[in-house]
Amino acid sequence: MNIENLNLDEILQEIENAKSKEEIERIKNKYLSKKGIFLSIFASFASLTKEEKVSIGARINKMKMSVEDKLKQKELSQFYEEINQRIENEKIDISLPSRKQKLGAKNPFQLVVDDITEFFLNMGYKVADGPEVELDHFNFELLNTPKDHPARDMQDSFFINQNTLLRSHTSAVQAHVMQDAKGQVPIKIICPGKVYRRDNDATHSHQFGQVEGLVIDKNISMGNLMETLTLLLRHLFGKNREVRFRPSYFPFTEPSVEVDVSCFNCNGKGCSLCKDTGWIEILGSGMVHPNVLRLNNFDDKKYQGFAFGIGIDRIAMLKYGIDDIKGIYTNNVEFLEQFAKEGE
Predict the structure, then answer these.
(1) How far apart (Å, rounded) are the C-alpha atoms in residues 265 and 304?
(2) Most CB atoms within 10 A, among 157, 177, 302, 316?
(3) Which of 255, 236, 233 lies closest to 306 in space, CA to CA?
(4) Over the range 8-29, which residues count as b (16 or more CB within 10 Å of their CB) and which as e?
(5) pLDDT in tens, 5-36
(6) Rounded to an integer, what is the distance from CA 168 to the centroid of its chain?
(7) Reported pTM
(8) What architecture is domain 108-343?
(9) First CA to last CA distance, the chain
(10) At what angle do helices 50-90 and 21-32 cross, to 10 degrees?
(11) Where are the domains positioned within the chain?
C-alpha cells in the first residue's frame, strides 16, 4: 500500500468509532498484524533509496505508534465500560428487605440435653463423655454388678461378645472418670449420651438417652443430692412443683431413691398423665455405694458421693406432650417444626 493513501486522522477516527471488542480486534489486525498495512509498507522498502527509507520509515513509525496508543486507549475504555455495565446490571438494592431464611428446629431430645447441660454447667459441673461400645468391666463390674449379680436382669443388654456390649447406661462414663481420677477429688460431672437396651413400645426404644450425674468429695450427704434434684426438677417443670423421694434399689447406690414430681398437668389432683396418683416418676438416684468407691480406688471412709440418672426421652415426652417416643427418632420435619420456637 502507498503511504500517501494512509490518513492518520481517518485511522484514529475509525478506532474511535469501534463499538465492540470484535471491531477493535479487526482494526488491530488490519493495521498491525503480520499481514497488516504497516508491515506491508515496510516490506516494500526494498525499492526505495536510503534517504527515502529514512524519511518514510520515520513517518510510518510515528503513525504506527499513534495507532497502537489509540488502540490501547480504546481497549481500556471498552474494558471499563463493560465493568460499569456489569455493575449496573448486577447491583443489589440494599434498601429492600432480605428474603427470610427458613430455619430448622432442634430435636426435642437435644433441647432437653442442652437445657439440663446448661443447668449443671451453671452449678460448676463438667461434662464427660465415653464410648457407646463398652467393656463389661466398665458397664457393670466397676459399678458393683459382677457377672453373676441378679441386678443385671434389670437391663436387657445388647452383647457383642462375652465382654463387650452396647452400653446400657451412661454410668459407664462415671466408671471411666473415677478410674482416671485415681482416687483424687473433687469429681463433679454429668454424662449425657445415648444408651441401648432391648425395649420397643410407645414409651420405650432400643436406643434412648440418659443424663447421669456423679459427685464425689468430702462431706457429701443425702441432703446435697435431694437439694440438687429438687432444683433440677423445678427448673424443668416449674418452680411450684413438689418433689418426692421414695426408697428404691440400685446396685451402685446405697441408700437408693426414686424421685417423683407433682403432676404439672393436674397440679397433683389426679389425671390420666399421672394415672390419678398426682405424681410422676422421673428418675433414680442415691448415695454412691461404698463398694463402687473401693472398686474405683477411693477411700470410702474419707469420701462420699451421690449419683443420679434421668431419661432424656422421658423428660422430652413429658415436657412437650409427645405421645410416641418414635417421633423423636424418625426425622419427621413436620414433627420437628413444632419445636422451632423452643430452640430460639
Answers:
(1) 37
(2) 316
(3) 255
(4) eeebbebbeebeeeeebeebbe
(5) 678 888 888 888 888 888 888 888 888 887 88
(6) 26
(7) 0.66
(8) 2-Layer Sandwich (3.30)
(9) 80
(10) 170
(11) 3-88, 108-343
